Amino acid sequence: MNIIDNIINFFSPKRAYEREAWRAALDELRFYDAGMGGRLNAAWRTTNAAAETTDRFNRDTVRARARDLERNSDIAQSVIRAYRRNVVGKGFTLQAMTPDEVLNDQIEKYWKLWCKAEHCDVTGTQSFNQILRMAVTRKRVDGGMIILKRYVRDAEIVPLKLQCLDVDELDTTVASPHLKRNTVVSGIEYDPYHKPVGYYFRQYDVNGNQTIDPIYVPAQDVIFYFTKHRPSQIREISDMTATITRIRDVNEFITAVSVKERIAACLSVFIKKTVPSGGFGRSSVQGPDGRVDYAGKTLTPGMIKEMNAGDEIQVVNPAGNSAEAASFLQLQYGLIGAGQGLSYETTSRDMSRTNYSSARQSSIEDEITFAEEIELLRERVLTEVYESFVISGYLSGLFRIPGFWDNKHDYLQHEWVTAPKKWIDPQKESSADATALKGGLKTYKQLAAENGRDWRDQLRDIAEVYDYAHELGLEIGGGEIGKYKKPAENPAPDPDPDPAPQPDGDDGADAGGGDPADPTGDGDETGDGGDPAEE
Description:
extended
């Protein structure tokens, strides 16, 4: 209150109260609680700056701490592995979708061969699926990973291989760009529109020691896999940033609880002597001063010992209660999972508090979280690598594609099919799929993709099974697919049958024309001149 308010308060407290109340209401209208600088927010110091300004000075420290948790924290590993097994899992299956089916089969065949470690990795140590799993892990911990497209001469399939680099191999000391109008920031050269045009990398020997000057790689040969959170962000930041401190605090808490429980599990015995020279039966040992020494005496199961007169045993049994620690850890696991967009069950693998409905709902929410990462992985890594693979195969002569450059987008069309996930309740979910298929809510192609299969391959497999069963004289069911007939038993209709000439001049539509249902050939199945459609 100012001096005027104090004077008013002296003469009319009611008026002073009303003035203060209206002033407080006015403050509420003008400001956010989150923006107030009161006692509770006094130590909360913030500033607005570009993303690179806020990230640059903490990026290396955050990355180092995240890597430390990756090495030493089981809680951090539970988050990392959850993303790795749900984003990549068993890998992705390619479906080439060019206008030529023969070319599709050829591309899929050589893609499967190229994905082996000796063909896709410059080091020959990781298959393509293993590279993808490592990329997801490094993005979660480091914030991203860099993949270089390397073109080699001694390749067996296509002259393309991949080289994986850590993000801290970018040389942040470079300041001079290749072109004067460009700018180099944190090891990356940008054009005036902030688009990357090149990357500068440190070079190391096999022991990790930096050897020579950095090398420059054009952006077209670099795949920088990271998530961009702000328009002004140009480099990565660890995806674990929001939960690093909480994970460390929980690790410290678990260590303290473990030490406490170890102490609580100890049973100690103290000897209370009323006579200083007393001993512990005949096994007592006297020191140089004549006093009995109990050092080294332990308790063993079933032991019987004789106490000297005047000696008394006092047992110390520390009490411990881990119930509160369990509830606290459940809360922390839930917060850590929520900070990473995951459910408690996914991070902790604890299903004791769920039923089918809650487990299904958690699974749906987690799938939405993983779908964002899968989309980024497909667009930034899978599609980029696949298109480079097809172009390399065309240039090397492996794929003969007439008019490729004129119709490049048509020949690069493709889809990725993910491996299927196990059902929580197979009976309920298979029934739901059958209902969706019958009601037209889903197609057979969609169901096959959800189960990680190419729908064409699956139909061919079904046809092969039915053909073989038919040859053996067996009849097997299979729902709607069970109505399958052999091609010879289900011939395709003639698209434009020629009507037979009529000797009496009648309209060809009324003629028999060799119809097997009309033995007389007069166009009347019943012989009474009636309409065959009515019969």
